[in-house]
Request: fold
Amino acid sequence: MTYEEIIKAEQESHAKFEAETFYNKYCVADLRKIFDGLTKDMANWKMPFDVPGLMGEEVMPVVTAIQYFTGDNPQVDLNVNTMRFCVRTRGYYGACGA
Reply:
């Protein structure tokens, strides 16, 4: 196998694993899409970040994605003026004590 074939096989294997694995009733592949969307503009996804302006039904998938990929138990705040939630995470470094 070439190096490129090995990488492709590993990517396919990992994608299959994520598609077949569930965490707190959510498919890990779906959690990856959520988490990648949350961190797409970050230079380092392991740093703390906030996710403001969430509707109620958006909170649990976001919290679960953060828990799965960072190991953090994020803080959830409700803005009673807007009735929107903000999820705050210490990030991977904060969760693991780095």
